[in-house]
Amino acid sequence: MPGQIKRMIDTIITQRSNGNTTIALTTKTKLLLKGINPDKFTLASEDDPSVVAKLRVIATELGVHL
Amino acid sequence: MPIKTAYSIKELPAAVAELKQQCADLKPRVVLCFASPKYDPALLSQELQRTFPDASIAGCSTAGEIVSGRMLTGSVAAMFLDGDVVENAACAVVRNLRGGTGVRAAFQELESHFGTPLAAMDIEKYVGVVLFDGMSGAEERLMEEIGDLTDLFFVGGSAGDDLQFQRTHVLAGGQAFTDAALLLLLKVPRGFDIIKTQSFVATDKVLVATEVDGRKVGRFNGQPAVKAYAKALGVAPEKVAEEFMVHPLGLMVDGQPFVRSPQHVEDGAMAFYCRIAEGAELHVLNGTNIIADTRAAVEAKKAELGHIAGIIDFHCILRTLQLRAEQRCGEYGALFGEIPAVGFSTYGEAYLGHINQTSTMLVFR
Q: Which residues in chain A (5-64) have CB-CB distances under 8 A to chain B?
């Protein structure tokens, strides 16, 4: 099912920022620095297993439960 | 005036005595100190602690110093912040950087001092300064761990040694450290802001890092890195090093580059001054005017805030080298006008990650 990556990214940003727009922006930057570009993925993006696995690790590092 | 700056070119201990004299009757809660590697770092740290026993002291060695209105070498520059600006401050040292970061332990020290978990601190009233041993090569790892553990901003830079690339130091608590980083956490009731400015514009030429080993990129777009970079610039592969200063690469974030500066060529690969994540899409950048861009950034922040109480400027050595070559260091120093400012030429700046070729500034309101 496509779109899993986009949903994971959104969950990470939403949970981490908890409504704070500044933290949402910095979380997006942190994802980019970790090698994931949030703007590259949409709900139509294929579920690349390597990106999904990478996001699971990143979520753990950022203390976010997916 | 709640923030003062000072500098000295005297030897120790007279240099610290001269700083104290310029501090005059201000009672500093925090003393930041950036010193030429000509100074014995342990002796300097001891003298600072002895002279300002009630202050939190943090500093490092440099590749050039900045103090209100001037860019210097062979000096020690300081900023004094009193209790009106910094209500509370604590400094923790992260040791053995190359072996592991130890950020959690340092954060626990800071939490213990403030009596508050970092997670409960207001990100608009608390800000961190981070100073690294600039030869550790561990900045990315430490910044990533800081960013994982907290949403507080930590800005700073990597210590220098006047381009000798031998040994750099961070200073705290009357001691000097190598293979270490300092985390100085400040509670600033009036608030703060951050300027990250770089003098580049992105081109539409994109290089994707397809083979990475630490700070070395073996391949861009599936081709040997040098070949791909040369092709993007339209120059011969043997000439690429001449382009590094004005055509670094940028990881674009909301239209702004996080600059990745090439350092040297290595058997068709390119070594950088910071790590690039595999798969990262990097835009080739074109250099613009450092003086004009930095002036615009400082003026815009001044207009936005109405008043700036002081600035700490973490200024990349590559920018300093360019300004020296263009004989524009005086112009750069003058950009800050009447704003108390201190800083140094770094071996890399810190803002969310480890970055290059910026002026990354902590602005006190």
A: 16, 20, 22-23, 25-26, 28-30, 32-35, 37, 61-63
Average pLDDT of the residues of chain A: 94
Partners of residue B277 in chain A, C-beta under 8 Å: 33-35
The residue extents of the domains of chain B are 3-196+292-364, 200-287
**What is the C-alpha separation between B210 and B270, in angstroms, rounded?**
12
What is residue B99's predicted lDDT score, i.e. its pLDDT? 84
Measured at the alpha carbon of residue B40, what is the angle toward residues B35 and B44, in degrees to the nearest 5? 65
Cβ distance of B151 and A20 shorter than 8 Å = yes
Place of tokens 């949030």: A38
The reply to whether residue A30 touches residue B352, judged by beta carbons under 8 angstroms, is yes
**According to the model, what pLDDT value does residue B101 have?**
67
Residue listed under structure tokens 């994971």: A8
Q: Which two tokens stand for residue B76?
A: 């020690």
- Residue B86 vs residues B32, B124, B167, B192: alpha-carbon distances, Å: 12, 13, 31, 11
Calpha distance B318→B320 (Å, rounded): 5
- What is the pLDDT at residue B1? 73
DSSP bridge partners of B206? B283
Alpha-carbon span B9 to B7, nearest angstrom = 7
In chain A, what are the domain boundaries?
A: 4-61
Question: CB A34 to CB B280 under 8 A?
Answer: no
Angstrom distance (rounded) from CA B167 to CA B150: 30
- DSSP-based three-state secondary structure for B305: helix
Tokens, residue B22:
């310029």
**Rg of chain A taking only CA atoms, in angstroms:** 11
Closest CB from A26, A28, A61 relative to B151: A26
Predicted local confidence at residue B98, as pLDDT: 86
* Paired tokens of B284: 């080739």
> B255 burial class (0-12, 13-18, 19+ CB within 10 angstroms)?
exposed
Hey, which bits of chain A come out as E strands? Answer: none
Q: In angstroms, how far is the first alpha carbon of chain A from the final one?
A: 17
pLDDT value of residue B100: 76
Residues 6+ apart with CB under 8 A from A45: A2, A3, A5, A6
Inter-chain contact A35–B278, Cβ cutoff 8 Å? yes
ipTM of the complex: 0.95
3-state secondary structure of B224: strand
Q: Closest partner residue to B123 among A16, A22, A61, by Cβ?
A: A22
